[in-house]
Design goal:
By secondary structure, this protein is mostly helical. It is built from 20 helices and no strands. The longest helix has 36 residues, at 405-440.
Length: 489
């Protein structure tokens, strides 16, 4: 039987079946899996000291527990999203959950650092498949409009709260069960998701598309993975070293090769005409900046609260309840506002609030208290994240055809993860370098560390301010937004 051509109106109609009665249950299911993948980015932070003691490793080696996951997660997202489009979103979602769950079990059972790092690499592979698949499943289940906005609002809230809740859950599990349980907890959850997926989630894929852009997949994945590797290691080996510069040149060369391959491929992995949709371009730029600020914010705050204020892992996790507990209820408000006035004004407010939160943290003192010096910033960031992640998710998929849902999902996830890795590398370099300079000049350890963290937050405030400008310039206003502006509502 002849296949229907992609882009044909009749084919597009047949590729988009009517909504099914299980779509909200399916949304809950894929959001749980997505929550796990984001949780695993931050949950490890507070458990690192326990891992160091248990496995008897150095700080330099221990950092690879974080880097290994970030490299594979960030580097393989585009490939994961495109594979879901081609081979089936439900199928790849289930494969990703199975890989992630099995790797989590191995992580918890690991008795050497080498086994743990290798398992974290595999975990990242599973996450890179799951994350874009969840977003593309949602996009194909819900038609563009208020219902999809509500679904994406829930998805965005799960992602944002996952980053904050990871620190809290990591502290609880590490204190009362041991660091191994930050990984074991994924296993039963993943198993339940696998059991429920087939009867609840409907399969979808691109019909009529043949061939796989192997050259494009290899070059872009290698370029992104190498970039994440370089920016994750640059704080230790130095940004100006021959090794760092050489690897950056290698990453750039692979990216150029990717561009050449894509322009000549009959079935490119990333058709560049998707960036003609202005909301997609604007959302990815803003997503990059938000990822850089939010992930780095959690990293710096975790270090400040533990190293300067002397909080335990559990106490550190509990402080982040202020952010997670604010984000979830505000997410509903953010989604409703996006539906009413469009993504741009809501996103601009969210990014501005995050910027204010970063400015607040630039004033952290050596003798800080939670209520006076941390809570206001936590609340600003919580509201700001709800007003940022949700409109970014909606804008990143606005106007995208169902057959490109995986591509668009992979793009926005990649932008946020690469932004997060770059943000941590830059802010950590600035903070730690300044700390070492002050220590050498005779400052106390607490004073030097606090000053270094404050400078890191100044860097984040600058990045966040740039994101506000990018939002106003690049994110396109919807017709509804222009109508609201015209009548002064």
């Amino acid at each position: 039987m002849a296949s229907l051509p992609v882009g044909d109106p009749v084919a597009d109609h047949l590729l988009t079946p009517p909504p099914d009665s299980h779509r909200w249950q399916a949304l809950a299911l894929v959001c749980v899996a997505f929550f796990m993948t984001i949780l695993d980015v931050s949950i490890v932070n507070v458990a690192l000291p326990s891992m160091k003691s248990s496995l008897d490793v150095s700080d330099h080696t221990l950092q690879w527990v974080l880097i290994a996951y970030t490299i594979t997660f960030g580097g393989l997202l585009l490939l994961g999203g495109r594979t879901a489009d081609l081979l089936g979103r439900r199928r790849m979602f289930m494969i990703g959950v199975a890989i992630f769950s099995a790797a989590s079990l191995v992580c918890g059972l690991a008795n050497t650092i080498d086994v743990l790092i290798a398992a974290r690499v595999v975990e990242g592979v599973g996450a890179a498949i799951v994350s874009p698949a969840t977003l593309s499943i949602i996009t194909t289940m819900f038609e563009e409009g208020s219902e999809r906005n509500k679904a994406l609002g829930i998805w965005g809230a799960m992602g944002g709260s996952g980053a904050a809740a990871g620190v809290l859950l990591g502290g609880i599990l590490t204190k009362y069960a041991g660091w191994e349980w930050i990984f074991f907890v994924n296993v039963p959850v993943g198993a339940l998701v696998l059991v429920l997926t087939r009867p609840i989630v409907r399969e979808s894929r691109i019909l009529g598309l043949r061939g796989f852009d192997a050259g494009g997949a290899v070059t872009i994945t290698s370029s992104l993975a190498l970039l994440v590797y370089v920016i994750s290691n640059a704080p230790d080996v130095g940004w100006a070293t021959g090794r760092t510069i050489g690897l950056l040149i290698g990453s750039a060369a692979l990216f150029v090769a990717f561009l050449v391959i894509e322009t000549r491929s009959s079935s490119p992995m990333v058709p560049f005409d998707i960036f003609r949709i202005r909301s997609v371009t604007g959302a990815n730029v803003c997503g990059f900046f938000v990822g850089a600020v939010v992930f780095t914010n959690f990293f710096l705050l975790t270090l400040y609260v533990q190293q300067v204020l002397g909080y335990s892992a559990l106490e550190t996790g509990l402080t982040f309840l202020a952010t997670a507990g604010t984000l979830i209820p505000v997410a509903g408000v953010a989604q409703a506002l996006v539906t009413r006035v469009g993504p741009r004004p809501v996103l601009a407010v969210g990014l501005t609030l995050i910027t204010c939160g970063m400015l607040w943290f630039t004033q952290i003192p050596v003798e800080g208290s939670f209520l006076t010096h941390l809570l206001p910033g936590y609340l600003l960031v919580g509201v700001g994240m709800a007003f940022s992640f949700i409109p970014i998710s909606i804008a990143a998929l606005a106007g995208v055809e169902p057959q490109r849902a995986g591509l668009a999902s992979g793009l926005i996830n990649t932008a946020q993860q690469i932004g997060g890795a770059l943000g941590v590398a830059i802010a950590a370099t600035v903070a730690f370098t300044h700390t070492q300079t002050l220590l050498a000049s005779g400052h106390s350890a607490a004073s030097a560390a606090t000053s270094g963290f404050a400078l890191g937050f100044w860097v984040l405030a600058g990045i966040s301010a740039v994101s506000v400008v990018a939002c106003l310039v690049l994110v396109r206003g919807t017709e509804r937004e222009r109508q609201v502006t015209a009548v002064g509502l």
